[in-house]
Amino acid sequence: DGVPKPVLVFGAGYDTAKDSKASVATADTEGRGVYIVDAVTGALVWGVTPADNALKNLQLTGMQHSVAAGVSVVDSNGDELTDRIYAADTGGNIWRVDLPGNTLPTSAQTTWRALKFAALNTSAADGHAGDRRFFYAPDVVRAHGGEFLIRAAQADTELLEGAHLPGSLIVVEFPDADALRKFWNGEAYRR
User: How far apart are the two ends of the chain, measured CA to CA in Å?
Assistant: First the structure.
């Protein structure tokens, strides 16, 4: 209805099947999604899950792993409304959800969108069999005309065998090449 109201935004939870070594890098059956609920009533406002498109759900068939971590919300245009969400899953992926405008989408789900922002899982060739799981929300900072995804950390785990998997990542996204060049040539980058 175009009227801002307080909401809660969160990942759908953890699938305990991930605790079995037999299910490493396999798709989950629970916890696959991001939800927005009314902070006062608890009613579902909108979600993105592998379920079919509906009035309150955007289908994202590629979201095959549970979103056990918190999510990061961003006001990318300074209007004091959340219009971007970043979520990390237990399959080593980072998702970005774009929520343009100040009205909810229709059941056609043509205004709000979600995409896989980064696929960071490993392969069996490196000895880890695709077992990169994120349990913390990505840290996001907006500065110098860009959006910086600073860190998507894995759980604190003890390495028992194999090579260390780096727990941090830095991704910088600019709205266009001109904004990137301005930052690249600017004082803040040269420091």
Answer: 46
Cβ distance 49 to 59 under 8 Å?
A: yes
Q: What is the DSSP letter of 11?
A: E
Sign of CA dihedral 108, 38, 153, 123: negative
For 90-101, the pLDDT digits (tens) are 888 889 999 987
50: closest CA among 39, 38, 58? 58
Residue type, 102: N
Tokens linked to 24 = 């490493």
Is the full-model pTM beyond 0.90?
no
Question: What number of other Cβ atoms are within 10 A of residue 44's Cβ?
Answer: 13
Which of the four pLDDT bands, split at 50, 70 and 90, describes residue 36?
A: very high
